[in-house]
Write a structure and sequence with these properties.
heterodimer, A: Rossmann fold, 6-stranded mixed beta sheet, B: alpha/beta, Rossmann fold, two-stranded antiparallel ribbon, 9 strands
Chain lengths: 378, 291
């Protein structure tokens, strides 16, 4: 059944489906729905598998979103009470085929990850204290503190030279294009040589914050610190961990500090629980660092090093991490102002060989100290 | 060249090019072709992201133009560059004969002195080309913004020459290994498809198609072992390319099965990380059992 013979009803169904996806939080614009409709034109609209894949390829741009897409698709097109069923007169056989098509995505990591997550959740409920930290509104002092950090401290990560060049009088590479252009004025006589120089760029900054029970006095300040850093410079990624690692970069992105902190806090499920630093760093290395997130970057770990997990795992993952990033800074609040601090906890001892700089991080002023040190790590 | 009018036909054409695409990938490519949009492929390493571009080019009889991205890639390497040495010689020759005029200058910045780089070649070739923009995640943000411009209009402006526009856009395939997130703006220009690991049967079929010398029995054993490896907690799980390599290696050595000892000596073709090697060596018996 080609598109030309169908009525507007079909388009309405597709648009409604797009809306259903949008209501589940996927960013889908009218343009995307338009593309979806156009994509269906040469396909078979009564074939659920076509409906599924065409929608997925046109409206989904992130692998993580596939899970939501599958869910919405299932409830929208496959539910027995769905009005769509009647309208499209979907062939029974194609519905069966579609059901099996959904098994295909299940072989992909997304399905596995979700399963794993569910499994973890079950297991974890025994050992972990799952807790959403309810951050109230920031007090006036705290807001002032955030403003103060942001105003006073320049979060300038160290720089590195890139492979891109820019025009520069004292550069090293000749700027052939410009030289030739200019030489035209003088009949091909090269009067001046022009030069280019390699550009510099800020290194990425990755903050990995310990929000477990033993760090509860500091976790709020750390999150504020992360928020300020995120506001101040561009390439910042923020993670929180207690017993599991959560990426909180996105929620911290908003302009309002209250909202940012609340949203980040909402995302982290293991506030003030136990600590498994080794597991968390290992997960970071496997899931993000290996893909290059911190390549050439500065990784800042804020933790007291009280690890319930296997110190060997921590040592292993720290070693890997040290090979994947430029610098590792460890901020340990227990170091305090003690200049002769030596690592006491097993975790710290395991991690120490791979730490480039060990700092304290027990209050906002020590975080300021870190910020001043940051540009020099290049 | 006749183009497929259904997904099934496309799948069949790809199969003839020795590429076994599943329904999802075939639909994505089919939609991208009929809407004339670029297609962005993401997925684990070694699942055939780059390969499909090559196969599409060959089954449609188009030229494959490949742009390998890397950090710091800029317009000079992606789009065009003037041939400075020749330009210089030309200017010299002109001034010696004292014939430098408006027309000569015009020539100096004409097509003769223009070195075409992949993106420009693709735009010139239009629908005679498959443009593969490989590992776009390795290029930096600035390049992505620039790509966005090229991919939305398929036209390029060269100040000295003017605007060059593709009559009909080439088929564009972008691949990414997700070392970083691409900008949503770029993704929105593209069809998106995630290529996962194939299921066992399909993978066996892929191995026997790609390496005909491998017997199906051996392929089945290798695939079973690889699937077990993927379940292990490896830093870098083996892709389909590695499966094929391993099957080839074993077949080249005249092996018909997979025992602990043969697996041990050929492990290098499938595991390429020292830590992983150690982990797998400790569990070899389990990996090769029941196959």
């Amino acid at each position: 059944m080609p598109m030309s013979t169908t009525n507007n009803g079909f388009v309405t169904v597709l648009v409604d489906f797009g809306r259903a996806l949008r209501s589940k939080g996927l960013a889908i614009g009218s343009g995307d729905i338009l593309t979806y409709c156009a994509a269906m034109a040469p396909l078979d609209p009564t074939d659920l598998v076509d409906l599924y894949w065409a929608g997925r390829t046109t409206m989904i741009v992130r692998h993580e979103d596939v899970i939501v897409y599958d869910e919405v698709f299932r409830s929208f097109f496959l539910a027995s009470d769905s009005p769509v069923q009647k309208l499209l007169k979907i062939k029974a056989q194609s519905a069966a085929e579609a059901e099996s098509a959904f098994e295909i995505p299940a072989t992909e990591p997304s399905g596995k990850e979700q399963q794993e997550e569910a499994l973890l959740g079950l297991m974890a409920s025994n050992v972990e204290i799952l807790k959403h930290r309810s951050f109230g509104e920031c007090t006036d002092e705290e807001l002032a503190a955030i403003r103060r950090i942001m105003a006073r401290i320049k979060f300038t990560p160290p720089k590195r030279r890139t492979r891109r060049t820019k025009t520069a009088g004292d550069g090293r590479k000749p700027d052939m294009r410009r030289t030739i252009r200019e030489s035209m004025r003088t009949n091909g006589e090269m009067v001046d040589l022009y030069w280019r120089r390699r550009r510099v760029r800020l290194r990425p900054l990755i903050l990995i914050l310990d929000v477990s029970g033993s760090m509860s006095d500091y976790s709020r300040a750390l999150l504020q610190f992360a928020y300020s850093a995120k506001r101040a410079t561009q390439k910042v990624e923020v993670f929180c961990f207690g017993t599991r690692l959560t990426q909180v970069t996105k929620p911290l992105q908003t302009r309002k500090p209250d909202e940012a902190l609340a949203r980040a806090a909402q995302l982290v499920v293991d506030w003030e629980g136990g600590t498994r630093i080794g597991d968390s760093i290992d997960k970071f290395v496997r899931k993000w660092a290996r893909r290059g997130m911190c390549r050439g970057g500065v990784v800042v770990i804020c933790s007291d090093g009280l690890d319930r997990g296997d110190p060997e795992l921590l040592a292993d993952s720290m070693e890997r991490l040290s090979r994947l990033c430029h610098n590792i800074v460890w901020m340990n609040p227990h170091k305090g102002n003690d200049m002769d601090y030596r690592p006491q906890t097993v975790g710290m001892m395991a991690a120490e060989p791979y730490i480039d700089v060990l700092l304290s991080g027990h209050d906002l002023s020590s975080l300021e100290e870190f910020a001043t040190l940051l540009p020099k790590l290049g | 060249m006749n183009y497929p009018s259904t997904v099934r036909e496309l799948t069949e054409m790809l199969r003839r090019g020795n590429y076994l695409a599943d329904r999802g990938l075939a639909t994505a490519v089919f939609v991208a072709m009929s809407l004339q949009r670029p297609i962005l492929l993401e997925g684990e390493v070694g699942v055939g992201k780059t390969e499909i571009a090559k196969v599409l080019a060959s089954v449609f009889g188009r030229t494959l133009i490949r742009l390998q991205c890397y950090e710091g890639i800029d317009t000079n390497q992606a789009l065009y560059e003037w041939d400075y040495a020749r330009q210089l010689l030309y200017i010299r020759a002109l001034s010696e004969r004292d014939i430098a005029g408006e027309e000569a200058v015009e020539k100096l910045f004409g097509p003769r002195f223009l070195l075409e780089r992949p993106l420009m070649q693709a735009i010139q070739a239009g629908d005679q080309a498959v443009l593969l923009i490989d590992e776009v995640d390795r290029a930096d943000d600035e390049f992505e913004a620039f790509l966005l411009e090229v991919l939305s209009d398929f036209q390029i402006s060269i100040p000295e020459v003017g605007t060059i526009k593709a009559q009909r856009p080439p088929l564009v395939i972008l691949t990414s290994n997700r070392t970083r997130d691409l900008h949503d703006a770029l993704k929105r220009r593209c069809m998106y498809h995630w290529i996962g690991y194939p299921d066992s049967d399909r993978e066996v079929a892929i191995v026997t198609v790609q390496a005909p010398e491998v017997s199906e029995a051996l392929a089945r054993k290798v695939v079973a072992a690889v699937n077990r490896l993927r379940e292990m907690d490896l830093a870098k799980p083996p892709g389909v390319a590695e499966t094929i390599d391993w099957a080839r290696t074993l077949s080249f050595l005249g092996e018909t099965g997979l025992s602990v000892s043969t697996a041990d000596v050929t492990l290098g073709s499938i595991i390429k990380d020292r830590d992983d090697l150690e982990l797998v060596r400790d569990n070899l018996r389990e990996v090769t059992s029941h196959v």
